[in-house]
Amino acid sequence: MEAAAPARAARPSADPTRERILAAALDLFSERSFEGATTREIAARAGVTQPLLNYHFQSKDALWRAAVGMLFAELTDALSARADGLRGVDELTSTRLIVREFIFFSAHHPQLHRIITQECKVDGPRMDWLVEHHIRPLYAWTVERFAHLVERGELPAIAPTHLYYIVTGAGPTMFVLGPECRRLSGVDPSDPNVIEAHADAVCMLLFGR
Question: What is the 3-state secondary structure (H, E, C) of 91-109?
Answer without folding.
Answer: HHHHHHHHHHHHHHHHHHC
